[in-house]
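For the sake of clarity, the format in which proteins appear in this thesis is described at this point. Each number in the token line that follows is a code from a learned vocabulary of backbone shapes. One such record is shown here in full, so that the layout can be seen directly:
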Amino acid sequence: MTHLLSTMSVTELKASGYAVAGLRVAEQRSTSYSAAEVRLEAASEDKLIPPIVMRIGETVRIDDAANDDVIRSFDLDAVGPVMGTIASIGPSELIIDLGSGQKIPAYWSNGCSISKLIFDVPFKRMLIALRDLANCPRTRPSLQQVVFLGTEPRFYGQALSDSDFVDESLNQLQKDAV
């Protein structure tokens, strides 16, 4: 994916569904849950967003559409001026939550594009979890046996009584989980 995104222009990525060009800024506002939000609309005659392979929650880069034939760096460490997360995808609009302090420049209002970015944080977290699992101390039965082989876990020590809970507002199901 890194190779694909870093060797194709936005025009080529658009044909593959990894970018959307021909967008205009319909609205840009502050929200209570994020720093800013931008609503982008299709500027085409039919006013429809073309088919894309991007999903809600994915990280995208927003650029001025003037240079859609330029191959850009799509590494998160070399991101262009504006980056955000897709909050909503509709037939004719996209809503992007922008990062803290980010804003779409006014001169992009009538022409911008979005491109998928490589967001490898979940993959890195998975690798860390697997490494930690491989290196966890051996117990009887081991965590690996419980996770991979379905062995029934065993617990040692004293059970908590209702008076041992720090948060007394827990219901019985929550206490059982603890």
User: Anything to note?
Assistant: Residues 75-79 have pLDDT under 50 and may be disordered. The helical segments are 2-7, 10-16, 121-134, 143-149, 172-177.
